[in-house]
Amino acid sequence: MRLYTTPASPWVRRVVVSILELGLRDRFEFVPTRWPHDWATRTVAHGGSFAADTPVQRIPALVTPDVTLVESHAICDFINAELGGYRLLAREGAARWRGLADISIANAVIEAQILRRAELLRTADRSADFIAKMRERQLRCLAALEPRVGGFGPAFDLAQITTAVACGYQDWRYPEDDWRTGAPALAAWYDRVAGRPSMTATRPAETPQS
Amino acid sequence: MRLYTTPASPWVRRVVVSILELGLRDRFEFVPTRWPHDWATRTVAHGGSFAADTPVQRIPALVTPDVTLVESHAICDFINAELGGYRLLAREGAARWRGLADISIANAVIEAQILRRAELLRTADRSADFIAKMRERQLRCLAALEPRVGGFGPAFDLAQITTAVACGYQDWRYPEDDWRTGAPALAAWYDRVAGRPSMTATRPAETPQS
Questions:
Q1: List of chain B residues whose C-beta atoms are within 8 Å of the C-beta of residue A141
Q2: Could you write out the DSSP letters of every residue in A133-186?
Q3: What angle do CA A132, A136, A141 make, to 5 degrees?
Q4: Hey, how many other C-beta atoms are within 10 angstroms of the C-beta on A180?
Q5: Chain A nearest C-alpha distance from B34 (Å)
Q6: How far from chain centre, in Å, is Cα A78?
Q7: How far apart are CA A23 and CA A36, in angstroms?
C-alpha cells in the first residue's frame, strides 16, 4: 500500500502514528510529496503517480490494491478496522462514540491550525481577522480537551493520537499562543506521550518545496 | 437528541438527508442556528445552548444523552451504526471502503465549496487565487466522481447522499462553474435523485443572519 506524505502535515502524522502504534510499518510504502509555499492559494502541479492517484491532490492519500482513500478520517478508519483489529477505536457502541467525540474536537483543532497556516503563507490578501478566528478556535477546542484527558484510557488510541498530534503541531507552529496555560492537564499529558517512539519518529519538519 | 442546523450548510444537509432516508426524523430535535456573514472571518458570539454544547461552534453538532459529536463524519458514522443498522454504509469490509472512497472525494468537493464561500464573504483580503484554486478542486473532484456513478448501487446510501449534496450545493452557489459539462453522467444521476423526498425537503436556503 502506498501512502503519500509530508513531514509537516498533522493529518499525515495522525495516520503514520496509527501505523507505527499498530506495528504495521512494513505494510506501507511512504511516498514523500513536495509543496511550494504557494500551495496556499494555487493548485500545485504534481508529477508522478500522485496526480493520477488522487483527484483531491492533498495528503494524506492511501492507495491500496482495491481502493484509494483521500482523507485522514477514511484512512484511519480503514487502518483501524481492516489492519488493526479495532485496537485504536472500538468497532461500535459507546466506546466508539466516546472516542469520536474526542476525535471530532481534536480534528477541529488541526483543521484550524492548517487553515491558519495557509493564511499565513499568503503573500497578499492575508486576513488578520481570519487568523485571529482560527487562533480562537484552536485555543477554545484545546481548552475543551483539557477536562477530557482524565477520561483517557491506558491505550494510546486514535483519540489520544489525534489529540497528541494537535498538541504537537500547536507547539511547532504556534508557540506564541501559549496553549499550555489554558490547558495545563492536557499539556502535562502531552509531555508524557510525546516521548513515545511513534511520536518521536514523526516529529514535524518543514516539507520540501521542490 | 439535539442536532444544530442551518438550511445552507451541505455538512448539515448530509446528516439530515441520512436521518430522513433512515426514517428517523422523530428521534431528533433540529435546532436552527444564525450566522451573520462575518462568520467567515470572525468568531460569532452564540447564545443559548449552542456555545455550551460545542467548543468548535460549527454546525452540524449532535448532542445525545451520552455524547456530543461536532463534525459530520462522526455524526454520520453514529447515525448509520447506532440508529441505522448500517443501512447507509457497510460496517466493515470491501463495501465500506468502496463507500468511503467515494465519500472522501465528495467530502473534498464540499470542503472546497465551503472554503470558497467563506472567501467570497470576505469584505477585505479576498484572494482571487484562492477562489480559483477551490473552483479547480471542485471541478476536478466532480469529474473524478463521474466514472464512479456507474458503480453506485440501488440504495441511496451515504456515498450517494454525500455526492448528491455536493452536486446540489454546486448548483445552488456556483451555477457559473457549469460543472455538468465536465460530469454529464453524474449530472444525469443527480437530476434523478434530486427528486427524492429527503432531497426536496432539504433544498438549500440562505441561513438567517440574525
A1: 55-56
A2: HHHHHHHHHHHHHGGGGGG--SS--HHHHHHHHHHHHHHHH-GGG-HHHH-HHH
A3: 150
A4: 17
A5: 17
A6: 16
A7: 32
pLDDT digits (tens, 9 = 90+) for A156-165: 999 999 999 9
DSSP string of B64-96? -SS-EE-SHHHHHHHIIIIISTTSSS-SSSHHH
pLDDT at A99 over 90: yes
Alpha-carbon gap: B69 to the closest alpha carbon of chain A (Å): 5
CATH code that applies to domain A2-83 = 3.40.30.10
Which residue out of B1, B4, B56 would a mutagenesis test of the A interface target, given it has the greatest number of A Cβ atoms within 10 Å?
B56
Query: Does the beta-carbon distance from B141 to A55 stay under 8 Å?
Result: yes
- Residue of chain B with shortest Cα separation from A79: B97
Domain boundaries, chain B: 2-83, 94-196
Cell for A56?
A: 483531491
- Chain segment B106-163, per-residue pLDDT in tens: 999 999 999 999 999 999 999 999 999 999 999 999 999 999 999 999 999 999 999 9
pLDDT-derived band at A22 (thresholds 50, 70, 90) equals very high
Check if the interface score ipTM surpasses 0.85: yes
Q: What are phi and psi of B61, to 5 degrees?
A: -140, 135
Between CA A2 and CA A15 the distance in angstroms is 12
Nearest CB among B94, B108, B127 relative to A41 is that of: B127
Class level of CATH domain A94-196: mainly alpha
Do domains B2-83 and B94-196 share one topology? The answer is no
Q: Distance, in angstroms, between A97 CA and closest chain B CA? A: 7
Q: Do A56 and B98 touch (CB under 8 A)?
A: no
